[in-house]
Design goal:
By secondary structure, the chain is an all-alpha fold. Helices cover about 70% and strands about 0% of the residues. The radius of gyration is 13 Å and the shape is flat.
Amino acid sequence: MTNLSPAAQEVLDAALFEVNAECDARWIAAAVLRALADQVVPKRTALLSPGTVAGIRAEILAIATELEGTN
């Protein structure tokens, strides 16, 4: 298997953890979205304003929360 970047490995690990926990597809998707938010839109990014970063993260995490059925 090809070595993955740290970001790709984090997303894969999140999905595999949820699969191993025998959760349904919504929980797997939510875990992947949370990992995506952490890897693609870190809490602090020099290229974007803090408000923009927070807004993007919030939108991604809102989808994950909706999938989990916790909102």
